[in-house]
Specification:
There is one protein chain. The chain has about 400 residues and is an alpha+beta fold. It is about 20% helix and about 35% strand. It has 8 helices and 28 strands. A hairpin with a 2-residue loop joins strand 15 and strand 16. Helix 1 runs antiparallel to helix 2 and helix 5 crosses helix 6. It is flat and about 65 Å long.
């Protein structure tokens, strides 16, 4: 924030007072309308431009702008409003997008040096909110997570272009890894790598190959055995206890990657999110978000010190178990880790690598963080019920 000594009364003390007052009001408005930056955007500053106070920045919340302007005015601070209400009009209607890299990294800020937030796979839809001067889009991805992605990783579209894209036939990658080749042979130049879960436009069968195209216009050939018709996959996707656990086991030995949600590497919530996605459910991104989804499962006996399999008797395979710090007087609950319950006291999770551990002290492969378990949630059977879980049938992958 820039407030010069020449501003208004010319008093440095006055400028400092205005700055402190703005910070107080601004924080209150942010906490009221956009407390979690993963869900809503609110980045507003007060600057001095040519002797005037000006509100700049961006937000998805119209009510937040109105509240900020009113509260500042009521406090005697008059500022010109130049806050960009998102999606930004500067995008000229291109507020829809489709990921066009096998795995696109989404960061918490609009630069390569910013902290990794998540990943999105090729073919996943996004809503574009704004573009910064360094060619990064702020987007909301399929699970409602807001983050920044380099523009070359997303094909921006108007609503009409996006609807036309959705109406076209597509294929889903069912192999862990694959490649789009420029010709119908593995000696030709690659067009793109592919991972389990990527989606491309289907351009038709060509013998043992499938001709495909990426949203950004690149075209080539993928082994037909590596893909399945998207609508067929959606119809057959079945998030059963067995399928969730067996899918998660396919990641065993894979590296822990902060922000990872693919076979290239996963973090703890990335493993749970991806294991469910590959079986037809879209989960929230982070463990602290997933813990508020689905249905609660009672594990109070275990959390109160009965570290036995019997104390975990209410759990079913596929349930998510959460670790962290319980709420105490003057201190909020803090979720730091999530795992998938496998049954018989065993979990699978991403901790350094994806591995299987026991929650029971004294057993082989005991997980040392077991006593930090504080909550459990059942995800299976809760999709499309307003519980934070969406089926892929309703996730906007097709028309």
């Amino acid at each position: 924030m820039l407030l010069t000594a020449a501003l208004l009364s010319g008093s440095a003390g006055f400028c400092q007072g205005v700055g402190s007052l703005f910070n107080k009001i601004n924080n209150e408005v942010r906490n009221q309308f956009a407390p979690d930056e993963r869900d809503k955007t609110y980045e507003v500053s007060l600057v001095e431009q040519k002797g005037k106070l000006v509100l700049v920045g961006s937000t998805t919340e119209k009510e937040a702008i109105e509240a900020l302007v009113k509260q500042l005015s009521d406090a005697g601070v008059m500022a010109e409003n130049r806050i960009d209400l998102l999606p930004s009009a500067k995008l000229k209607g291109k507020t829809y997008g489709v990921v066009c890299m096998s795995t696109a990294s989404f960061n918490c800020g609009g630069s390569f040096s910013a902290e990794s937030g998540t990943q999105a796979l090729m073919g996943m839809p996004v809503r574009i909110l704004e573009e910064n001067d360094d060619d990064w889009y702020r987007c909301v991805n399929m699970e409602g997570y807001t983050a920044w992605v380099i523009t070359r990783s997303v094909k921006a579209m108007t609503k009409e272009e996006y609807e036309a894209y959705l109406a076209k036939p597509k294929v889903f990658v069912k192999a862990k890894y694959s490649t789009i080749y420029s010709e119908k042979n593995t000696n030709s130049l690659p067009v793109s790598d592919l991972v389990w879960g990527c989606i491309m436009l289907d351009e038709g069968k060509a013998g043992a190959w499938r001709k495909v195209s990426v949203a950004d216009g690149r075209t080539g050939y993928v082994p037909a055995a590596d893909v399945i018709d998207l609508n067929t996959w959606i119809s057959n996707a079945e998030p059963t206890e067995k399928n969730i656990v067996e899918t998660a086991k396919q990641f065993c030995g894979f590296p822990y990657v902060w922000g990872g949600t693919s076979v290239k590497g996963v973090d703890c919530s990335g493993l749970s999110k991806t294991s469910y996605f590959l079986n037809g459910y879209v989960l929230r991104r982070d463990a602290s978000q997933q813990v508020r989804t689905g249905d609660s499962v009672d594990v109070h006996r275990f959390t109160e010190g009965d570290y036995t399999k019997e104390a975990l008797g209410n759990l079913r395979p596929g349930d998510l178990v959460f670790f962290g710090r319980k709420a105490e007087a003057g201190r909020k609950e803090r979720i730091t880790h999530v795992a998938i319950y496998m049954g018989d006291g065993m979990i699978i999770h991403s901790s350094n690598i994806v591995r299987i551990n026991s929650l029971i002290p004294g057993e082989k492969d005991y997980y040392a963080g077991s006593k930090r378990l504080i909550k459990a949630r059942r995800i299976i059977g809760t999709a499309d019920q307003g519980k934070g879980v969406i089926s892929v049938k309703n996730a906007g992958l097709t028309e």
